[in-house]
Write a structure and sequence with these properties.
Blueprint lengths: L3 H11 L7 E4 L16 E4 L4 E8 L8 E9 L2 E6 L5 H13 L10 H4 L1 E8 L5 E15 L14 E7 L2 E5 L8 E3 L3 E3 L21 H10 L5
Antiparallel strand pairs: 1-6, 2-5, 3-4, 5-8, 6-7, 7-8, 7-9, 9-10, 10-11
């Protein structure tokens, strides 16, 4: 059995990652030219996961049931954003939904005209990207309602957006195979972007911290 010193040595050698060291990049587009600034606004999200679909197989008698893979599925991604002072970011997602399905004419746009690739990035303590997931062909399928309350004078306004997407592409420095994997089962060669080519913004000043923002507002007298 490994000792406590072995555990400490392993942690010191390999390090750890904090849950707050992340950001999300949505490329600029025709709807709103400031989507790169959403990198400062995403308060929380769930990093995309995937599931292999299986069918039960049993040959005969009391043989144990074997799970035979027959497909795969990916999870929706839920992101919570801190609202801008002019709520332009909220208008962006509302307009994106309206472009997908026109609220006045009920016409539906072509998928290729309304999808965007979204990057979710995880950083180490040196602010270097160590894990990047590209959500290929993403669209928002739901903007959640916003609950407001007169009693919540000391809380910042946030809203949540659910995204669906075609597939996932993993781009990571820690991938020992030195390959990027798209659709989880197809290897790609040198044509895939490397982590340094992914359009991300990173510096110690760009890591947004909600608690610091609230404290700054209180220090400036804008919050009690």
């Amino acid at each position: 059995m490994k000792s406590l010193n072995d555990f400490k040595s392993h942690i010191n050698a390999k390090g750890i990652v904090s849950q707050n060291r992340f950001d999300v990049t949505i490329p600029n587009n025709l709807i709103w030219a400031e989507t790169q600034n959403l990198i400062f606004r995403c308060q929380s999200l769930n990093i995309p996961g995937a599931q292999i679909l299986t069918s039960d197989f049993k040959l005969y008698g009391a043989q144990p049931i074997v799970k035979i893979p027959n497909g795969r599925t990916v999870d929706e991604v839920q992101m919570t954003f801190l609202t801008r002072g002019d709520m332009a970011d909220k208008y962006f997602f509302d307009s994106w939904l309206d472009r997908i399905v026109d609220f006045s004419t009920n016409t539906v746009s072509y998928y290729d005209d309304i999808k965007l690739d979204i990057f979710v990035n995880v950083y180490n303590y040196n602010n270097e990207p160590i894990y990047t997931v590209k959500m290929v062909g993403s669209i928002p399928n739901r903007v959640e309602m916003i609950q407001v309350n007169w009693e919540d004078y000391d809380r910042l306004l946030t809203y949540t957006v659910n995204f669906s997407y075609e597939s996932l592409e993993y781009i990571t420095n820690s991938n020992k195979t030195k390959q990027s994997f798209k659709h989880l089962d197809k290897k790609h060669g040198n044509s895939d972007p490397t982590p340094s080519q992914v359009p991300i913004i990173s510096s110690s000043n760009n890591i947004f911290n909600t608690e610091d923002a609230i404290q700054n507002l209180r220090n400036s007298g804008r919050l009690p």
